[in-house]
Amino acid sequence: MITSSPIEQLNLPNSPLFGTDGIRGRVGDVLTANLALEVGYWAGIVLRQAAEDVGPIVIGQDSRNSSDMLASALSAGLTSAGIEVWNLGLCPTPGVAHLTATSDAIGGVMISASHNPPEDNGIKFFGSDGTKLAKNLQAAIEAGIRGQSGAHVEPERWGHLYFTPELITQYVEAMKDSLLPGTSLAGMKIVLDLASGASVDVAPKVFTQLGAELICLHDEADGDRINVNCGSTHLGSLQAAVALHQADLGFAFDGDADRVLAVDNLGRKVDGDYILYFWGQHLSQLGLLPNEAIVTTVMANLGFERAWQASGGTVVRTAVGDQYVQAEMASCGAMLGGEQSGHILSPQHSVSGDGILTALHVAAIVQQSDKSLAELVDSSFQTYPQILHNVRVDDREARLNWAKCQPLQDAIAEAEAEMGDTGRVLVRASGTEPLIRVMVEAESMQKTEYWTKYLVAIVEQHF
């Protein structure tokens, strides 16, 4: 057994290591090689004890400069626990989930901080079924890291590390197989913004194989540029490219390609609410949408909700986070769900949110409709004015306990009372970034702007 690093050397926070999307933060602070080694070792111990048969663990990573270091340290921890490691190299997060679920792997790990800036990174775990690792197993891993676990298994042998990028071909083929037989994107001109991240190889390959004419932006893996003024959080360059090349539409992925936003042929943003609406209509026509239900979060626009209800459908809302959407979908048997941010879940096609797969289906829907994406948008619904303002709060404890701030609670209550059922307020701490998010939605932009400024001022004053 490899001797664990002293706990005091890990600089662990008092709050839980595992957040809404694994362990994430600034590399060099909490997230270090020492921590990754410990995480790997204890994940190996916990997952092998939970498995009936001990298989490999699949690892993928995005393009961040720190991803090689973290993947190497994590692999060292896993192999020291007697686990075989399959390292895919640069790979979208949903690729790791798919290959974990379709092999005899006992788990999967993605090294990525998704849409966060280059200096951040993260460690995200999947269970053997390709879904996010169960909370009790995350807690057991963290207990081991903190020296609070009596679990110990002396490995019968050291594990081995194998570099297996060829497995990604299986993921590419699965995405194509998820489309209706005979689907072709021939004749479509599509712009892809690959965010200098995990999708730079896979996305162009699968779109090209389906016949699309491509213009690719930020299409080289670059740890210094991942998500910087590009990708799904910065649509400006994609909108400009769609206009310049007179493309049919464009797609922007985030750093690990588990989410996507679109731009129509007029250069307008097409977010996850619209994607859910179009895909929901398509699945409904095929008889593949049980109870006409779509699961989304509290961030979804009221315009989308009321339009879907008017068409005879049902909208179920959850807290923000794809794990909550996925849990509710499993509970009610829904076959489509997701977030306004572009994280879309379609369990009949994929075990996790998949930006590339979602983009393929949206492109196919547009191709088969004989309409432009702009025409589909114009005939769907009108959004309510909505503003989301992020306030940076570096104090983690204060940020996570924002709800205890009485002046802020009073301000929220005042806004909600004034707007009644014509608007909504949502204040929450981000689970992945040092931010308190303030969202206001109302029938008029004037009200939306007024209450956003008012609430942001309160947050800034007290945090």
From TrEMBL:
Superkingdom per UniProt: Bacteria
Enzyme class, spelled out: isomerase
Stored NCBIfam families: glmM
Annotated catalytic residues: 114
Cofactor entry: Mg(2+)
PTM summary: Activated by phosphorylation.
Protein name, entry field: Phosphoglucosamine mutase
Similarity comment: family membership: Belongs to the phosphohexose mutase family.
Keyword presence, Magnesium: yes
Domain Alpha-D-phosphohexomutase alpha/beta/alpha span(s) in chain numbering: 17-146, 170-267, 271-384
Pfam families according to UniProt: PGM_PMM_I (PF02878), PGM_PMM_II (PF02879), PGM_PMM_III (PF02880), PGM_PMM_IV (PF00408)
Organism from which the protein derives: Chamaesiphon minutus (strain ATCC 27169 / PCC 6605)
Origin organism lineage: Bacteria, Bacillati, Cyanobacteriota, Cyanophyceae, Gomontiellales
